[in-house]
Q: What sequence folds into this?
């Protein structure tokens, strides 16, 4: 049936297909001209890439801006399944890499890029190798979590910057009591990556590999501690239960009723874009800790640049990916123009000498960010992060709406079941 | 009986009761209905005059002065990408609707004016086609088009828009209602071929119906989100719906560009409104016409 | 009939396109719904996954999903709000316009039709702004006169909030369809009644509405189909609230399975179920009303 269909179409469209042409597998001629496509959602990535195109006339890269991590991966996986339509190079969030590897969507570039290990932190490098000999991409940016707060409102309310989560809860109560319209933060059922980062800080690792099988621990004691903490605050009513990244949240950032935000190193861009008029009123600090004596952190966001398995110019694509994420000029452009926090460890000295414009009142911004990155705990992502994350949306949406602390724990069990069930159903070996 | 009125443009049907006393109740009710329908449109009109921070801080219906700044920013965004999206939408909707109208007219004409084996089957297929949700088709369509290497091209969006079961259904009604058999017979007597009878005699008679089908399909394609979203990877090929939703869903690490989305939404509605107002006197629908025929 | 082949030639373009872009994808979806991916071990190496026959397992999983029945019931409830609400409003407006006892006819007709030109994705975004308590002018105005408006996206209101967008977007179109049908009624049919002293309301109820019955049936059917396919509105509103899950309607589940979970096989199975249900309901409805709307002339 597929054949007849293709036949009909090809016959009908013989002209168009002939004209649009396809990239035929080409011979490895170093002097040949190669055109690569690159899917990315970082702003101004085309300007960063212009730097490469200017100095590499034979390897021209075109950026196709995407709608963010989830739609981009959805489209890539559909293209992989279809056998054509994928770009050569792809921005891939760390948590998506196991999924992409499992779908055979990204190429192993160990030969071309294996020598870059020393340029990245162990956790970043581990997310592109998944602990194997293969290299499925080069880390581009990382997202150590940070706490942003309105220093003017903190001062006025006489609240000190919380060092522990207990202090955070106290501060939340105090601020909400002083002005019932104000909240120190919100529990967002729409941002599983955010909650994963907070759980990571508490010592959770939702997936793991045990010999030849996967382990899943979404409802382990560490994550439960985090869920109970937020469930308690939501039930108490001192923390908002509305999702982040809504017009309502924007309004709250603007009018000062959202007093703090547990974001990540890329936060200044979001704050500036949503609430430019509050510039100069925000400050940043490390995340509050569970144990002040053992500071820890989690990640929210961050991505690698991968070469897709459909690319016919793997060597050239890998060369570009290496340049993009390690060349000093590229790092500067990434940090300055594309607004990302480069994962390469020497980026701090090369590209991040100035605080972001929105935080010009905080000269030590990147020192804090570097510290936040250093204490980030290890975390392993599994091959069905998408299933767990969409289960998070639904389960915590319900829980947040009920405002019952007990519902938050139940939500974790729901996610755990959905995640394990999906792995088993697909045929993965799951321990326990 | 009733169907014969179908050919008359609305304007010619003189309002029979225009000189009747006007009723305040009717006027109030109609104005309430209009207010309900205009509320979000007025909102978008006002909101597009606001700067990014005003959008979330000032009273919603208090206009500001930044409309042209917003348009200028939207225009400068990635070298005028927004306007390219508008052109793409126009190409998809205009091209798709034109071809689909012709295809529908031919099929509808054949079903209304000929007796042939398989006619019942063909018509039932069309009806079945009306019932299939586009969301369901999108993924298999993508997988099939990918096999012939057409994804991420204009064709990926255009080709599936060429077929409109609903358009065929309407064209059959219009052809049955507006093209008298005697006229076709006369044309044949004069030695006209079937094609000539169709193109020179039937098509002009079906004109107002075809305008209607064209507009339906134009709006359907212009408003479509799912198909182009799946088919296209290159944002320079996006229609305006997909482009705007991209500005909104930038992922957690980027702020949504609300001002641009709001301004862009306003501008994207204008062409459709203009199109409707200019073609208003031609287009009309009488879904029941086919059934009323005595 | 000069040439026997003529009707077939006229039909050819439509049939080819129909086969390629409707029939083939549906058949392909049917095929996919019987397949699944089988992974072995950790599933990471190349070749660790393969496509195999799944029998009816995708169907049984889809139908036994605990979220499936609630989502079907939800769409049913949604339809009970949207279809009568939208058609009722459209009919009232069309009758008011047709009665011709107002000077604001052209303006209101255009205004009420305008939302048809707004894509569902954009309409939902606009209404989203109007729903969220902190940015909504409606809430502002109501609180100004001392009324605390309910949160439109809270669990008790969200169904109405989504339905409202559909009613807003669809009333104008249906109004025009009904208005066109009303204009086609020969005046003689109700002039006599008017002379006998019948009021506008009586004329509308006793004469006009029965005469445009076929148009009402068709608008009802198309509204019903659109209702079963509700997707874009809840999809756009979902990130704004806690109350709309990723499987809020059956088509949202199809989307989630296909694009979020990368499981086109389950998505295909659910699609087939939805398509079959749509057919059954539509044909059942036509049987029920015994309409000749779809009957063929000649």
A:
């Amino acid at each position: 049936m597929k054949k007849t269909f293709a036949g009909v179409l090809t016959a009908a469209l013989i002209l168009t297909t002939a004209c649009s042409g396809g990239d035929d597998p080409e011979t490895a001629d170093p002097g040949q001209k190669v055109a690569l496509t690159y899917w990315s959602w970082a702003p101004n990535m085309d300007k960063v890439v212009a730097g490469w195109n200017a100095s590499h006339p034979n390897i021209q890269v075109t950026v196709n801006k995407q709608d963010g991590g989830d739609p981009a991966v959805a489209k890539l996986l559909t293209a992989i399944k279809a056998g054509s339509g994928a770009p050569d190079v792809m921005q891939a969030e760390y948590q998506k890499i196991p999924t992409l590897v499992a779908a055979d969507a990204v190429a192993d570039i160990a030969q071309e890029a294996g020598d870059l290990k020393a340029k990245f932190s162990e956790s970043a490098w581990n997310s592109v190798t998944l602990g194997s000999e293969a290299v499925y991409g080069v880390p581009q940016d990382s997202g150590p979590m940070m706490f942003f707060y309105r220093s003017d409102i903190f001062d006025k309310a006489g609240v000190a910057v919380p060092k522990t989560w207990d202090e955070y809860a106290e501060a939340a109560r105090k601020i909400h009591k002083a002005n019932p319209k104000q909240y120190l933060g919100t529990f967002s059922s729409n941002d599983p990556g955010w909650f994963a980062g907070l759980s990571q800080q508490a010592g959770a690792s939702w997936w793991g590999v045990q010999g030849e099988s996967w382990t899943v621990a979404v409802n382990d004691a560490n994550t439960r501690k985090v869920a109970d903490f937020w469930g308690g605050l939501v039930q108490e009513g001192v923390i908002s239960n509305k999702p982040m990244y809504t017009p309502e949240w924007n309004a709250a950032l603007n009018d000062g009723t959202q007093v703090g935000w547990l974001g990540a190193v890329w936060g200044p861009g979001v704050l500036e874009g949503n609430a430019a008029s509050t510039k100069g009123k925000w400050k940043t600090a490390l995340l509050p800790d569970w144990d002040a004596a053992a500071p820890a952190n989690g990640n929210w966001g961050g991505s690698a640049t991968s070469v897709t398995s459909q690319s016919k110019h793997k060597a050239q694509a890998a060369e570009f990916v290496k340049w993009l994420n390690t060349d000093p000029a590229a790092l500067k452009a990434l940090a300055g123009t594309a607004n990302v926090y480069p994962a390469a460890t020497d980026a701090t000295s090369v590209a991040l000498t100035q605080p972001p414009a929105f935080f010009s009142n905080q000269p030590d911004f990147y020192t804090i960010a570097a510290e936040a990155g250093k204490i980030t705990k290890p975390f392993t992502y599994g091959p069905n992060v998408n299933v767990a994350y969409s289960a998070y949306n639904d389960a915590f949406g319900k829980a947040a709406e009920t405002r019952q602390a007990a519902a938050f724990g139940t939500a974790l069990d729901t996610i755990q079941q959905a995640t394990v069930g999906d792995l088993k159903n697909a045929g993965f070996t799951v321990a326990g | 009986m009733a169907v014969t009125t179908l050919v008359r443009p609305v304007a010619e049907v003189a309002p029979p009761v225009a000189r009747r006393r006007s009723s305040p109740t009717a006027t109030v009710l109609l104005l309430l209905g209009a207010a309900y329908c205009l509320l979000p449109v007025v909102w978008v009109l006002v909101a597009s005059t606001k700067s990014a921070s005003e959008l979330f801080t000032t009273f919603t219906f208090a206009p500001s002065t930044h409309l042209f700044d917003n348009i200028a920013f939207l225009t400068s965004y990635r070298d005028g990408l927004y306007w390219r999206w508008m052109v793409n939408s126009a190409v998809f909707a205009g091209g798709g609707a034109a071809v689909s109208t012709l295809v529908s007219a031919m099929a509808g004409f054949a079903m209304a004016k000929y007796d042939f084996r398989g006619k019942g089957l063909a018509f039932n297929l069309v009806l079945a086609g009306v019932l299939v949700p586009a969301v369901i088709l999108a993924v298999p369509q993508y997988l099939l088009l990918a096999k012939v290497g057409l994804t991420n091209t204009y064709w990926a969006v255009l080709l599936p828009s060429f077929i409109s079961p609903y358009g065929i259904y309407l064209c059959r009604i219009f052809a049955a209602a507006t093209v008298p058999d005697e006229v076709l017979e006369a044309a044949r007597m004069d030695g006209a071929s079937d094609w000539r009878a169709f193109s020179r005699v039937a098509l002009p008679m079906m004109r107002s119906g075809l305008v209607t089908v064209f507009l339906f399909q134009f709006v359907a394609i212009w408003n479509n989100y799912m198909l182009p979203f799946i088919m296209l990877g290159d944002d320079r090929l996006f229609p305006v719906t997909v482009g705007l939703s991209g500005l909104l869903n930038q992922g957690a690490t980027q702020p949504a560009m609300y001002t641009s989305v709001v301004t862009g939404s306003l501008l994207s509605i204008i062409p459709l409104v203009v199109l409707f107002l200019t073609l208003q006197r031609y287009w009309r629908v009488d879904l029941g016409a086919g059934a009323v025929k005595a | 009939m000069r040439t026997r082949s003529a009707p077939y030639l006229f039909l050819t373009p439509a049939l080819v396109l129909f086969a390629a872009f409707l029939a083939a994808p549906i058949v392909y979806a049917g095929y996919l719904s019987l397949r699944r991916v089988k992974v072995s071990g950790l599933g990471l190496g190349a070749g660790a996954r393969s496509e195999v026959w799944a029998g009816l397992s995708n169907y049984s999983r889809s139908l036994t999903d605990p979220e499936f029945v609630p989502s079907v019931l939800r769409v049913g409830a949604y339809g009970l709000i949207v279809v009568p609400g939208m058609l009722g409003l459209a009919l009232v407006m069309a009758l008011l316009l047709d009665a011709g006892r107002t000077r604001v006819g052209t303006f209101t007709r255009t205004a009420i039709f305008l939302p048809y030109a707004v894509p569902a994705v954009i309409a939902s975004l606009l209404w989203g702004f109007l729903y969220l308590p902190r940015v909504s002018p409606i809430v502002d105005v109501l609180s100004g006169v001392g009324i605390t408006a309910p949160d439109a996206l809270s669990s008790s209101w969200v169904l109405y909030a989504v339905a409202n967008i559909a009613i807003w977007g669809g009333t104008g179109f249906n109004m025009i369809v009904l208005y066109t049908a009303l204009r086609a009624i020969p005046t003689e049919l109700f002039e006599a009644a008017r002379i006998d002293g019948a009021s506008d309301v009586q004329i509308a109820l006793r004469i006009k509405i029965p005469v445009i019955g076929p148009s009402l049936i068709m608008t009802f059917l198309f509204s019903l189909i659109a209702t079963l396919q509700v997707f874009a509105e809840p999809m756009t509103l979902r990130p704004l609230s806690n109350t709309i899950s990723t499987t809020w309607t059956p088509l949202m589940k199809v989307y989630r399975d296909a694009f979020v979970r990368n499981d086109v096989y389950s998505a295909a199975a659910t699609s087939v179920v939805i398509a079959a249900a749509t057919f059954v309901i539509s044909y059942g409805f036509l049987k029920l009303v015994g309409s000749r709307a779809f009957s063929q002339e000649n």
Summary: The radius of gyration of chain B is 23 Å. Chain B has one domain: 2-9+74-292. Residues 1-18, 289-294 of chain B have pLDDT under 50 and may be disordered. The interface with chain A takes residues 52-53, 55-57, 78, 139, 142-153, 155, 159, 229-230, 233-236, 245-246, 249-258 of chain B (CB under 8 Å).
